[in-house]
Amino acid sequence: MSTPVIATTDLTKFYGKARGIERVNLEINEGEIFGFIGPNGAGKSTTIRILMNMIFPTGGNARIMGMDVIRENKEDQEDSRLHPFRCQCICLHECA
After folding, report:
1. Which end of the chain, N or C, is less packed with Cβ atoms under 10 Å?
2. What is the pLDDT along the chain (96 residues), one digit of tens a residue?
3. Domain CATH number, residue 85
């Protein structure tokens, strides 16, 4: 079995006492098409912002192509392996 392109485990973000997302678990494999839809306030933007390292989670973890996006981004802000993913996410998020 190959490593998922995107995987989150118990990804959680609180803004003070307000919930952003709580225990989000997802796994997206290469070649899959994944629709990220939901009502306002469901946590779509929060999840994408964590994956792009625009904000940090309260708990859990997230991996892109096997790399821990929080830990490895802190260690190397210029890791070129994540740039194409981040650019696509920014375009999809900002253009929607």
Report:
1. N
2. 688 999 999 999 999 999 999 999 999 998 898 888 999 999 999 999 998 888 899 999 999 888 898 777 655 555 555 555 555 554 444 444
3. 3.40.50.300
| Position 58 in a domain | yes
Q: Does residue 87 sit within a domain?
A: yes
User: Going edge to edge, which strands form the sheet with 59-64?
Assistant: 18-28, 6-15, 59-64, 67-68
Structure tokens at 55: 């904000």
- Smallest Cα–Cα separation from 62: which of 16, 24, 21? 24
In a domain, 1, yes or no: no
Quote the CA–CA distance of 63 and 95 in Å, as a whole number.
24
Put simply, whether the predicted model's pTM sits higher than 0.70 gets the answer: yes
Whose CA is closest to 59, among 18, 13, 6? 13
What's the total number of domains in the chain? 1
